[in-house]
Design goal:
Helix content: 40-55%
Structural class: alpha+beta
Shape: globular
Order of helices and strands: EHHEHEH
Strand content: 15-25%
Strand order of the largest sheet: 2-1-3
Distance between the termini: 27 Å
Radius of gyration: 12 Å
Mean pLDDT: 87
Largest sheet: 3 strands, antiparallel
CATH architecture: 2-Layer Sandwich
Number of strands: 3
């Protein structure tokens, strides 16, 4: 599994597309997918886990939807640099 942290959005975010992505690709029920989308709109950090085999397509899709995110490994590297 790959861990991705969603933390914000860019102008033009496709809100409905994000909710559908969370339901169809990440497997969340509608209520949870909507909760995550609302958290992203509020610039709150939300971690999701996705199967590693679809990681690259997920990364591309999140970028196309206008979601700001980091891969958990990126967070660990960033923390190492700041130390």
């Amino acid at each position: 599994m790959a861990r991705i942290v969603l933390y914000g959005w860019k102008p033009g975010l496709k809100k409905v597309g994000l909710t559908l992505f969370l339901r169809n690709k990440a497997g969340y029920p509608l209520a949870k997918a909507k909760e995550i989308t609302d958290a992203v709109l509020g610039h709150k950090r939300v971690a999701i886990e996705i199967p590693a085999v679809v990681f690259e397509s997920v990364r591309a899709e999140l970028t196309a939807l206008g979601v700001e995110f980091v891969v958990d490994d990126d967070l660990q590297r960033q923390a190492s640099k700041e130390s």
